[in-house]
Amino acid sequence: MRGQVGDQSSIPRYFEVAWDTARRTVDAKLRLEIYETMRRYLDWWLSPVKRDARTGLITAIFEETTSELDAVSMRPQTVAAVDLNVAVAFACQATAALARHLRREEEAARYERNLEEIKTAINRHLWDGERGAYYNYDVREQRHRPRLISTTFDPLRLGIAPLERRERLLKKLVDPALFNWGKLPLTTIARTEPTFVEAKGPYDGRAWAVMSGPSATCSWLRVSRTQAATIYQRSCPGLPSRLSMPTTASIWFLPPEKGTA
Fold it and tell me: In the 8-state DSSP scheme, what is residue 242?
């Protein structure tokens, strides 16, 4: 809003689309334009408006994360969300790679340095060793947020989670009692959480699903998008028989018990 500090965006999936487009196009002018948009947008995420000085983590508000129960009333510069920090880490990696290609060496080095800083911050502050998972973190109160969300698997991307932690995460991933593995797509929140709820009938606003699609499968398992779509289709019999990679306009709601799309 005009006159206010620009402190809110949405979870930055733009970098994935921009990176895919930039590395496929043969139009050098377009590639440079894409890089400039990535650079400017990423610099905002890395600015003091979003980045906590003490932890080095990126803080979220509202739709900058999919993992907060009451996102509408979130305070700015308070919650460092797992999904957001991994998304910004990817942004650093993609923007650095494109900068190298364009021979912008100084900028590439800066984004590579930020990538390593964010990966270190994720492992230092978001990991709970006792519970064996990554949790959102309140940077003001310096404590983990309590809820186990499927975004805990996001640090499987980019090699962020060390090997021992990956093994612990994968045990949770394939535990049907936690995220419904082997039956239907992963539930967004662990089924053991007090706030877990299933939508009854048509989507009624009480339950939501964002992280159970082929894109998440692709990210976590490090397979191609085509392979991820195949894995996803075979593991989700409740979905239509012919499924391409969905867009933001094609979201399917499958109650974990019935599985009717």
Answer: S
Euclidean distance between CA atoms 154 and 160, whole angstroms: 9
pLDDT digits (tens, 9 = 90+) for 119-148: 999 999 999 999 999 999 999 999 999 889
Q: Over the stretch 31-88, which tens digit does the pLDDT of each residue have?
A: 999 999 999 999 999 999 999 999 999 999 888 888 776 655 678 889 999 999 999 9
Confirm if 133 and 145 have CB atoms less than 8 A apart. Answer: no
Task: Tell me the whole-structure pTM to 2 decimals.
Answer: 0.81
- Give tens-digit pLDDT for 148-201: 998 999 999 999 999 999 999 999 998 999 988 877 667 888 889 888 877 665
d(CA 111, CA 99): 9
Domains assigned to the chain: 1-161 (1.50.10.10), 174-261 (no CATH)
Q: Which two tokens stand for residue 93?
A: 């990696």
Report yes or no: 251 and 240 within 8 Å, Cβ to Cβ.
no
- Do the beta carbons of residue 79 and residue 138 sit within 8 Å? yes
Tokens describing residue 231:
């894995």
Residues 77 and 127: beta-carbon distance below 8 Å: no
Both structure tokens of 16: 């994935």
Please tell me the distance from the alpha carbon of residue 159 to that of residue 123, in angstroms, as a whole number: 11
Ramachandran region of residue 139, left (φ > 0), alpha (ψ -120 to 50) or beta? alpha
By the 8 A CB rule, do 82 and 152 touch? yes
CB of 187 closer than 8 Å to CB of 175? no
